[in-house]
Amino acid sequence: MVATSSSTAAASRAAKLMKRRSRVRFYEIIVWIAAIAAFFVLPSKMLILTEIAILALFAVSLDLVLGFAGIVSLGHTAFFGLGAYIAGLVALHYVAEPVVGLLVAGIGAGLLGFVTSFLILRGSDLTRLMTTLGIGLMMAEMANQMAWLTGGADGLSGFSLGPILGLFEFDLFGKTGYVYCLVVLFVGTMLMRRLAFSPFGLSLKAIKANPMRAGMIAIPARKRIVTVYTIAAVFAGMAGALLAQTTSFVSPDVLAFHRSADVLLVLTIGGTGYLYGGIFGAVLFTLVKDWLSIVTPQYWMFYIGLILVVLVLVGRDRLARWVEYLPERLSKSKEEGR
Amino acid sequence: MSDIVLETRNLKRSFGAFLATNDVSLKVERGARHALIGPNGAGKTTLINLLTGVLPPSEGQVFLEGEDITSLASFRRVNRGLTRTFQINQLFNDFTPLETVALAIAEREGIGHNLWTSIAGYGSIVEEAAALLARFGLASVMGERSVILPYGKQRLLEIALAFASRPRVLLLDEPAAGVPEDERHEVLAIVSDLPSDVTVLLIEHDMDLVFSFANRISVLVAGALFTEGTVAEISADPRVKAVYLGENA
Amino acid sequence: MLTILFDGVAYGMLLFILACGLTVTLGLMNFINLAHGAFAMAGGYVTVVMMNRYGISFYWCLPAAFIASALIGLVLERTLYQWLYQVSHLDQVLFSIGIVFMAVAATDYFMGGQQQLINLPPELSGRMDVFGVGVGRYRLFTIVVCAALALALQLILSKTRFGSRLRAAVDDRRVAMGLGINVPLVFALTFAFGSGLAGLGGAMGAEILGLDPNFPLKFMIYFLIVVSVGGTSTVSGPFLAAMLLGIADVAGKYYVPAIGPFVIYALMIVMLIVRPNGLFSRGSR
């Protein structure tokens, strides 16, 4: 009798704990309210807000690979760049409606992600760095060589986008652009959030935490990595597509190495493994970079480098932990009666 | 009637010039309480690693229920009912015991690839996880991070985790190793209460535990099978004593 | 044909000298130092400044490049790197990318973004004819110097006391410390030596590889390929990997200019598929 009642108690406690894992945190609501408020409060800042939303989507997609599966990638921009070029080419040659281009870009980048994921399955961190960097550089070189398709070093231009879903025209102030990017970011983050709290998301963290033990509870690590790498590539490709569509231009810079490094820095600032780090990081990074490029237009790279060095020396864990001090945690520790 | 569940044939594994497993042919019967003993460095853990696919063998084969599983990855062996615990805890440090066990159950049920439904949505899995944790005395700490649990609790979680996969063959690698005296009885009670339909291969240094638990004992020395027999045979074998005394002297 | 092979060998030799320091930092300290190219670049710019501004002989510049880069390496190792041997690979990657960015921007600031040219001494420029094969004198010089260095390295590691201490420290840091080996000192000296070699490679390579502020970024992939294909346990592994890479790259760019830049990536992918643990690894342990 005692045993039964204690195990029912355990079951109801377990159910409660599990629900608590995936419930909406306080900071999540704040993020989205702030993003919407920015639209009304900062009408003159649409371009930089758009930039933040795009970078955030890009960074959140990298978090799936880095923060969940634990794969350090130096070439995540391969997918971003491919998505940008695909969206540009779709608009230039086929359909001016942006959502079509967005989806095609996601599919294209996802295919590249799927194919290349098999190359990162084996080997150490070092070989993965080499592989991801190599694939990124290879894409950049291809974009450069196939000038007939991509415009080479001049970039891809001369296309304009039609109204979104045939309804919302892009305006000169970038208001539509911002809302469009924000909606894509929101939907993308919500999809990835579901993934994060699913058995799949948990199994990824298990693979990252202890691959040997993960195998011993029957997790097929390779299959999971292929899947998550492909999904991350889809969202990175969509982020690239958003950039191409909101600027009506694809510069070869979308495939440049510094973008892969930038997005790593974004996650470093915001913290990995909980998705919103990509968003927080994107806000901070864009503001700092924007400020730096005004103060020192030519040498901002130096200060980005300095930030990286200092972040690591100070200890990025210590810095990223600030999120834990947000209200959600406080209320939680009270509930547990401590 | 002998019904062999787990078998190795001429299993060898070398690290460079060092032969850690030397031509081991071992048979484990269904439902057995089989102990594997031997002095330090005899290659016991290497053998377990070969059995579970953590290491590939240099030569030889491993059979589970008569099927050759030599080239299968660890996770496929677990799917077929062969699992283990580790001598040194291998847990997911930031996971709670609840998450850890629930994930193992989810994988066993084949829903680990589901990327849409939250684990909380699978009521039966959460319930089973809670029951398992309660059985292993972990209910009170199910919400803590595994890494901060007392060592004895981590040890229990290690075993509970193996159980979550519902093994037919369970390899226990020194389950009581390093557990403080006051938590030790809890671990030992769990080990001796293991259901009888689960075949157990136990690696252990503690002879009292081995002699009280096992019904068959294999002795491994320098990577090779030295002798094998019932508890009575092994405990009476002067050569086995010599092997152990030789180590202690 | 033979000329191409010859150029490829010279190129590969250079890559080896450039990358072998990275092999050591990686194998020894388990540190992924993506900033290795920055030390090479430092050596290159030391040479450029000494030759072009002060008219110092090329031959004096080479040891100077070695010493300058080694000193920079030593200082950075003592002040920054030594704290990061235990951190995660991600942190090491972020840190060393940061160093690269700073080096690139600083070089751009002080030296300008243009390609740097050096005037080789007359006896090293031009081609000569060896058994009917046109051979660049400078490339021959490069091959001789680099081969001598590679040989010396092999001897140092296998025969001297420092070499055996180094290998002991690599195998087991704690045991080595217990044996009274001053592991931090061994690490620092090795790091400095590896950086010095990179600097020397950068100085010698200014003519063949080119030199501009983006050097560390441009050659990062080459270094990574050399160490991941060659492994970190021997001198010969990275050496052969560097040769393979050098010859393939030169031949690719010469014979199939349209797809030449892709040869190294193709090589990388083939290697990954065929031997995921490195071409010359001793097998997984």
- Report the structural category of chain A: mainly alpha
What structural class do helix, strand and pairing data of chain B support? alpha/beta
Number of strands of chain A: 0
CATH class of chain B: Alpha Beta
| CATH-defined superfamily of chain B | P-loop containing nucleotide triphosphate hydrolases
The H/E string of chain B reads EEEEHEEHEHHHEHEHEEHH
Major sheet of chain B: order of its strands? Answer: 7-8-9-4-10-11
> What shape does the CA trace of chain A take?
globular
Gist of the model:
Chain A has about 350 residues and is mainly α. Chain A has 16 helices and no strands. Chain A has a domain at about 40-255.
Which helices and strands, and how do they pair?
The complex is a heterotrimer of chains A (338), B (249) and C (285).
Chain A: H1 2-22, H2 26-41, H3 46-68, H4 77-94, H5 98-117, H6 125-145, H7 147-150, H8 175-197, H9 199-209, H10 211-216, H11 221-247, H12 257-270, H13 276-295, H14 300-314, H15 316-320, H16 327-335
Helix pairs in contact in A: 2-8, 3-8, 3-11, 3-12, 3-13, 4-5, 4-6, 4-11, 5-11, 8-9, 8-11, 9-11, 12-13
Chain B: E1 4-15, E2 18-24, E3 27-29, E4 33-37, H1 44-52, E5 59-64, E6 67-68, H2 74-79, E7 82-84, H3 97-108, H4 123-135, H5 151-164, E8 169-173, H6 181-192, E9 199-203, H7 207-213, E10 216-221, E11 224-229, H8 231-236, H9 238-248
Parallel strand pairs in B: 4-9, 4-10, 7-8, 8-9
Antiparallel strand pairs in B: 1-2, 1-3, 1-5, 5-6, 10-11
Helix pairs in contact in B: 3-4, 3-5, 5-6
Chain C: H1 2-29, H2 36-54, H3 58-79, H4 89-111, E1 127-130, E2 133-136, H5 137-159, H6 161-171, H7 173-178, H8 183-205, H9 215-218, H10 220-230, H11 236-255, H12 263-274
Antiparallel strand pairs in C: 1-2
Helix pairs in contact in C: 1-5, 1-8, 1-10, 1-11, 2-3, 2-4, 2-8, 3-8, 5-6, 6-8, 10-11
